[in-house]
Amino acid sequence: MLADYHIHSEYSDDSVEPMEAIIKSAIEKNISEICFTDHVDYDIKIDHDIFRQMNDEEKVRYEKVLNVNYPDYFKEIEILKNKYKDRIIIKKGLEFGIQTHTVEKFRNLFNSYDLDFIILSCHQSDNKEFWNYAYQEGKTEDEYNLGYYQEIYSCIHQYNDYSVLGHLDLIQRYNKKRYPFEKSKDIITEILKKIIKENKGIEVNTSSFAYKLEDLTPSRDILSLYYELGGKIITIGSDAHNAKSVGSHIALIQQELKNIGFRYFCTFDKMKPVFHEL
């Protein structure tokens, strides 16, 4: 069985791909199940209902940085679920780009909709994003790498409505060279212990191949540590932003997980993990 549990459509600000094109691509690739996980990043992006209340001058700033249009998003997923119900399973998810000061906003959002799956990701800290190096500016390598993990650690001690942690060592994507695992092992261990205790999981994000990284995301060291600590809930997602990338390298990752010792990967239904043999 192949399942892709990290996919972005035109409902994310950084994708223009229609949902139906993604679904057709997944069916062509014999993928059994997908979950749409479009972006929500409070304070960096705003919701559509707030945007509609702005004046023209205010709208210029936010024109391309909007969160998911939730009513349209969930409505379209339901329509497509029904249309393709005999060919593929489609689940409702979101990717929460959480920060410690936005926890309450995500709590309110989660309580407003029925979801199957939530990826909890850290894309920025103090409203400073990693991809444009705003967060890293003025910090040493140790400060921004360990600061990234500290933000995740703090968030998971305040927020519990999620399924898996997304691309756990995302900061490596923006490092000029890989940050030594031993330097961050202690705090990563504490993060993994916490999520295992709370019956949460992690994802393997296959975008590591698209970014031509030296290792998987998260690294094999992190995946092995998660396994050694007793972690069992693990999903696989392409982080696709276009139909072509859907399902990318998922079969390969299944074998990588087997090599580490994992026996199962997960899909989700109504926020509950469903285990499938690798």
UniProtKB/TrEMBL annotation:
Belongs to the PHP hydrolase family. HisK subfamily. The keyword Amino-acid biosynthesis applies. One of its GO terms (cellular component) is cytoplasm. The keyword Ribosomal protein does not apply. It is an enzyme of class 3 (hydrolase). This is Histidinol-phosphatase. Residues 3-100 form the Polymerase/histidinol phosphatase N-terminal domain. Its EC number is 3.1.3.15. One of its GO terms (biological process) is L-histidine biosynthetic process. Keywords: Amino-acid biosynthesis, Histidine biosynthesis, Hydrolase. Pathway: Amino-acid biosynthesis; L-histidine biosynthesis; L-histidine from 5-phospho-alpha-D-ribose 1-diphosphate: step 8/9. InterPro entries: Histidinol_P_phosphatase_HisJ, PHP_dom, Pol/His_phosphatase_N, Pol/histidinol_Pase-like. It catalyses: L-histidinol phosphate + H2O = L-histidinol + phosphate. One of its GO terms (molecular function) is histidinol-phosphatase activity. PANTHER family: HISTIDINOL PHOSPHATASE-RELATED (PTHR21039), HISTIDINOL-PHOSPHATASE (PTHR21039:SF0). The lineage of its organism: Bacteria, Fusobacteriati, Fusobacteriota, Fusobacteriia, Fusobacteriales.
